[in-house]
């Protein structure tokens, strides 16, 4: 089960960078087999479609804009991601197109069969490298959600003996 | 009676850019470009160690990570007068070439070809006829009837499923689309093949940069790629030959597919050689340095004013005094307090002053960069024109060959001046891609030759003096001239500005009312259908916009907003 785990978002914009932070937390809490690859992808454009191709499974950590308290972790399946209005333009720039990337990847004939978005609701999206306390507190829960998804896929993430959240270089 | 059209957003996949046009008598009479660009890097970097600035700077944009990283180390090296080893120069050059090959291929096939290619029309194509046509244009081996029939079947499958998938958003059947079905089928086939070749180019970035996006191998003073030809863990012969083979494969694709496709498709839309010139002041910076100091380059830089190639003035060095002195940014029509125009070293974090969209006032978050007070167009077209004006051998040859081939397909003599146009920007990008493919192999040879001489040096140690030093670094990125400006005080960053290509092109008016390049390029464009302003999209996409790259959050509700609003009239 070749699996790609992505951390998406901008580490210079506080809680928008929760994806890369969650990815780092996940890597620091679990030992992972070689078939699982981790990538801090930042804020990609079309490259997203090209990066996800060829994997059996995709897990994405990202900020999620929903009406829930900051730090809420909510998972969306492939069908839920694709059910959102397609290519619907908006005034906000908050969408580089995970939906579009999945659809492009399908047309290219290499889309991952299993897709899970692990969304964390942000509080402050503004200049800075620190997460808000509520969002920082959600990192272990987000990592656990990714571990559960791997288990469901038949991949075994092993919790580390002495788990400790790693410091990330940008803070 | 004039109508106003608001197109928002215009980039198919990336960030947010809003274009407003007024249309009268079927043509654009007025236009405004409004957007968001990452701002405030100076706040993130203030007080930090200049040796780590590049790690943060490459996060400004997720598409342009590599180019910000390299420009940042160049800026700091410029500030302290540090030369870098030739191995480091060549390795950086290879990364720049490979990144640009990847970026240009993606831009044409995956972000803008479908402005010209009607996917639904490809269903009517005869694969055998399409194959015969392709063979008359190019020796590319993957244009067989069998391969094209397979692509057609794939499209038929998509349509039969009742969903257009990734193609849902296209302006299919638009009156301004008029390629024959066979050409549309060929283009869709190459759209699929382009996926592999852009990925190969990106693989070279990943090998040399350790990772992509966000390369890890840079350092102020050089690179961190240890060289030992016999060690698996370092840059060795096996990796070097893999890079060479990969670059050769990409070069074949560019020479036999990308460039001929742009020429062929362009020749079938000759009217678009007459629209979209806009600002014909051009600027490019020299790149692919050939010495440690940055005084000799393989790609030419300079400025041309008013579309007159005889006005060419060179930008020649990493410490070029003309470039250093003449760049400024204006906030007269941007949502910041005041109407100042300042040199990047003198800029402070501007105070936001949001006013709603005011046609004659402030209407964008993007500042308006100026050179000698003039709006300048940047991008591959600018660099190709610098090459032509300065007699650059490789560029001149590729331009002449391309224009001759386009003329023979269009059956009309196309003048060089036709490059000042929407399609000219696409052609120039494809030509630049072919030039880079060739130069990437040259720089591979230079690197291997230097290593063979026994030089394994990759880094010179930076020293930061007490007191204040200032520097700037530039790079001719895929979207044009990128510059970073740094002030360092007692070894710590005191100020930092990035003046990015899409700011030069997408910026608003300045205090004198001069339009930015996007704005000027739209005036005079025909609009066949105000509900579906394909023509606006064509001209804007020809610049390869990259804006609002700085945030990302998934929104499952998808806030409802119309793509195109037609007001008045």
Task: Please provide a written account of the structure.
Chain A has 171 residues and is of the alpha/beta class. Helix content of chain A is 31%, strand content 22%. Chain A is built from six helices and seven strands. The radius of gyration of chain A is 15 Å and the shape is globular. The termini of chain A are far apart. The relative contact order of chain A is 0.28. Chain B has 569 residues and is of the alpha+beta class. Helix content of chain B is 39%, strand content 15%. In chain B, the strands form six sheets. A four-stranded antiparallel beta sheet of chain B has the order 3-2-1-18. Chain B has a three-stranded antiparallel beta sheet with strand order 6-9-10, with helices on one face. Chain B is globular and about 70 Å long. In chain B, 56% of the residues are buried. The chains are: A alpha/beta (171), B alpha+beta (569). The interface between A and B is large, with 61 and 58 residues.
Compact description:
Chain A has 171 residues and is an alpha/beta fold. Chain A has helices at residues 18-29, 47-52, 78-83, 98-107, 133-137, 139-152, and strands spanning 3-8, 30-31, 36-42, 57-64, 73-77, 114-120, 158-159.
List its traits.
heterodimer, A: 171 residues, alpha/beta, two-stranded antiparallel sheet, B: 569 residues, three-stranded antiparallel beta sheet, 39% helix, 15% strand, globular
């Amino acid at each position: 089960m070749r699996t790609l785990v992505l951390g998406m978002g901008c580490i210079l914009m506080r809680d928008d960078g929760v994806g890369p932070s969650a990815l780092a937390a996940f890597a620091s809490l679990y030992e992972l087999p070689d078939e699982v690859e981790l990538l801090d992808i930042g804020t990609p454009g079309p490259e997203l479609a090209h990066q996800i191709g060829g994997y059996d499974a995709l897990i994405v950590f990202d900020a999620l804009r929903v009406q829930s308290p900051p730090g809420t972790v909510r998972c969306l399946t492939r069908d839920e991601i694709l059910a959102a209005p397609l290519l619907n333009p908006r005034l906000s720039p908050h969408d580089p197109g995970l939906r579009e990337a999945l659809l492009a990847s399908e047309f290219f004939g290499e889309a991952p069969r299993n897709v899970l978005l692990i969304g964390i609701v942000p509080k402050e999206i503004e200049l800075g490298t620190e997460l808000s306390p509520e969002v920082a507190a959600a990192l272990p829960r987000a990592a656990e959600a990714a571990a559960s998804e791997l288990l469901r896929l038949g991949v075994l993430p092993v919790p580390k003996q002495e788990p400790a959240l790693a410091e990330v270089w940008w803070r | 009676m004039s109508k106003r059209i608001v197109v928002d957003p215009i980039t198919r996949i990336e960030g947010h850019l809003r274009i407003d046009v007024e249309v009268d008598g079927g043509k654009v009479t007025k236009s405004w470009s409004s957007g968001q660009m990452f701002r405030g890097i100076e706040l993130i970097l203030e007080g930090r160690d200049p040796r780590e600035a590049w790690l943060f700077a490459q996060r400004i944009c997720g598409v342009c990570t590599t180019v910000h990283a390299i420009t940042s180390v160049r800026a700091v090296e410029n500030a302290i007068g540090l030369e870098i080893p030739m191995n480091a120069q060549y390795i950086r050059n290879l990364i720049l070439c490979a990144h640009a090959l990847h970026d240009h291929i993606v831009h044409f096939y995956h972000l803008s070809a479908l402005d010209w290619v009607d996917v639904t029309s490809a269903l009517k194509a005869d694969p055998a006829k399409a194959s015969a046509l392709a063979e008359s244009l190019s020796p590319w081996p993957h244009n067989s009837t069998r391969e094209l029939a397979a692509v057609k079947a794939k499209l038929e499958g998509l349509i039969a499923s009742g969903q257009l998938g990734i193609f849902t958003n296209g302006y299919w059947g638009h009156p301004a689309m008029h390629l024959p079905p066979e050409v549309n089928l060929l283009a869709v086939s190459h759209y699929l093949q382009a996926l592999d070749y852009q990925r190969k180019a990106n693989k070279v970035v990943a090998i040399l940069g350790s990772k992509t996006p966000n390369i890890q191998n840079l350092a102020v003073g050089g690179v961190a790629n240890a060289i030992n030809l016999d060690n698996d863990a370092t840059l060795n012969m096996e990796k070097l030959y893999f890079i060479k083979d990969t670059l050769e494969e990409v070069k074949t694709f560019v020479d036999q597919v990308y460039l001929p496709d742009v020429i062929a498709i362009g020749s079938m839309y000759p009217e678009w050689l007459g629209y979209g010139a806009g600002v014909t002041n051009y600027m490019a910076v020299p790149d692919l340095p050939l010495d440690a100091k940055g005084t000799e380059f393989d790609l030419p830089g300079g400025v041309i004013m008013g579309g007159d190639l005889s006005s060419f003035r060179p930008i020649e060095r990493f410490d070029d005094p003309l470039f250093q002195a003449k760049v400024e940014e204006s906030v007269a029509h941007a949502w910041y307090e005041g109407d100042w125009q300042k040199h990047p070293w003198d800029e402070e974090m501007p105070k936001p002053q949001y006013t709603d969209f005011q046609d004659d006032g402030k209407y964008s978050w993007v500042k308006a960069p100026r050179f000698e007070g003039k709006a300048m167009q940047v991008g591959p077209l600018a660099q190709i024109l610098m090459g032509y004006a300065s007699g650059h051998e490789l560029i001149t040859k590729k331009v002449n060959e391309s224009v001759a081939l386009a003329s023979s397909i269009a059956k009309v003599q196309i003048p060089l001046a036709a490059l000042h146009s929407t399609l000219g920007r696409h052609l120039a990008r494809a030509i630049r891609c072919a030039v880079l493919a060739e130069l990437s192999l040259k720089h591979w040879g230079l690197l291997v030759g230097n290593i063979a001489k026994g030089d394994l040096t990759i880094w010179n140690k930076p020293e930061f003096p007490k007191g204040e030093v200032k520097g700037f670094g530039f790079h001719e990125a895929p979207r044009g001239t990128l510059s970073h400006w740094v002030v360092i005080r007692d070894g710590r960053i005191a100020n930092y500005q990035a003046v990015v290509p899409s700011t030069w092109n997408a910026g608003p008016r300045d205090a004198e009312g001069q339009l930015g390049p996007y704005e000027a390029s739209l005036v005079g464009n025909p609009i066949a259908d105000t509900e579906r302003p394909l023509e606006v999209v064509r001209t804007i996409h020809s610049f390869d916009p990259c804006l609002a790259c700085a945030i990302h959050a998934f929104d499952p509700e998808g806030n409802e907003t119309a793509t195109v609003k037609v007001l008045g009239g």
